[in-house]
Amino acid sequence: MTATLQTTNSAARDVSADAIVIAVGQDAGGLVLAPGAQDVDAALGGGLAATLSALGATGKPEEVTRIVSAGKLAAPVIAAVGIGTASAAEPGSTDAEILRRSAGAAVRSLASPKIRSIALALPADDAASAEATALGALLGSYYFGRYRSDGHPAAELTLLTSAAHVDQAVARARVLAAAVTLVRDLVNTSPSHLYPETFAAEAGKIAASSGLGIEVLDETALTAGGYGGIRGVGQGSVHPPRLVRLSYQHPDASRTGVFAGKGITFDSGGLSLKPPKAMETMKSDMGGAAAVLAAMQAVAALKPAVNVIGYLPLAENMPGSRAQRPSDVITMYGGTTVEVLNTDAEGRLVLADALARSGEDAPDLLVDIATLTGAQVVALGTRVSGVMANDDAVRDGIVDAATRAGEAMWPMPLPQELRKGLDSKVADLANVAPEREGGMLVAGLFLREFVPDGVRWAHLDIAGPAFHEGEPYGYTPKGGTGAAVRTLVQIAQDVADGRL
Ligand code: BES
Ligand code: ZN
Ligand code: ZN
């Protein structure tokens, strides 16, 4: 569900909305009003900071305090959100992520069937803070109502800003918000509605509306083309697999970035069946493919001078009389044989075909994104993704791109010593190692075997961050989060700029 955001240069007192949001920071002297709040304070006749303090507001990040405007503003409710100690009085110096989270937390706590329109009197007079405020607010207003009979539309947002030069920044925020929203919607859609054919159809619609090139391989083409990983994983389901290839081209591009996202529309584990609890969130196992699709949509809108290809290997991992068996040997795209010892290690099988195929695109950088291992969650928790690569500079460059995009990712090694665990008694490789230790890294080592020679490659394991089971925080709701999509857009930009 996409919220809308418009801008206005009207004075705060004249903007009619169900609620208006201001920000308050903390300094040595107590609560201070952030840029944007002064007009609201003036309309009330001063004393806003004192009133909020009296109600117990401290200005700590994401704290929301509501007061009524008692007829002094066109908006009946004023909500003050804390932004902490970031130098609140100095425009432009507020840390972008704090601003995104605060705007997100405020909108999230307000948006309800009663509060349909929200004005934002938040820092927005320079490009960086306008983009952060707009993006945080849009992400915080996310609502997934597809399966609710009492569903309501997403809120309407109005950003107060006097600066015309922030238009481009706000437009970028809208593009990024639409991309994150698309990922969240796809992840939250139930696997009874989203399976390889319907996912590929969705990709077709987005390609058509964004002007992206698209090629879809169906089960017949996958068999004929030798995509043994995607076919093997998909063969136990009544919903046949697909491989989608999306392409974006820029006339001035001299470099090509390739993305590949794991697209398991439901991961039951296959015959190596998962326990019931572990299966409950496995509709999110296509979060990598959704991030690639959404990043392609955003790239098509932002138009960086680079060529970008996106692969979505899509399959449903189910047990059944036609499902692959532990000990089956499959032949991957490019000819490598794999002994499938555990059918629940399926993500690496579908990705291996996509990685091998990507050699035909001559990538300058190849990045795969996957909800790949439970071991990632054990190692880094639910909010930090792991980054592995066959080149240290690429790995660090991607962590840096993620930081600039406002996403938490951390470098992880690919220890050569773990590679022998993937030796098979009968085939070129086994899909799992006998020992559990270092499971995230072993999965990375498996994928590395399929990276075309000489290609710089990175692997992002987003198993934890893709789906949020706890209470909402900042701009992050329960359910699909949209993890990695902003980083992918940043990577495309960095490849265009020669930075990656
Ligand atoms: N989709 C799962 C990984 C996962 C786990 C994602 C938890 C999100 C949350 C993946 O296909 C899987 O089952 N991996 C196995 C690999 C093992 C069999 C080597 C795992 O992590 O247990
Ligand atoms: Zn699995
Ligand atoms: Zn999986």
Please give a structural write-up.
Helix content is 34%, strand content 21%. It has 500 residues and is α/β, with parallel strands linked by helices. Mean pLDDT is 96; it is low at 88-93. The strands form 4 sheets. Strands 8, 9, 10, 11, 12, 15, 16, 17 and 19 form a 9-stranded mixed beta sheet that branches. Strands 1, 2, 3, 4, 5, 6 and 7 form a 7-stranded mixed beta sheet that branches. Strands 13-14-18 form a 3-stranded mixed beta sheet, with helices on one face. The relative contact order is 0.12. Helix 10 crosses helix 15. Strand 13 (328-331) and strand 14 form a beta hairpin. It is built from 15 helices and 21 strands. Ligand BES is lined by residues 267, 285, 342, 344-347, 371-375, 377, 432, 439, 463.
Biggest beta-sheet profile? 9 strands, mixed
Class derived from helix and strand content: alpha/beta
First-last Cα distance: 33 Å
Low-confidence stretches: 88-93
Bound molecules: ligand BES, zinc ion
Shape: elongated
CA-atom Rg in angstroms: 24 Å
List the defining traits of the structure above.
binds ligand BES, 21% strand, alpha/beta, binds zinc ion, 15 helices, nine-stranded mixed β-sheet, elongated
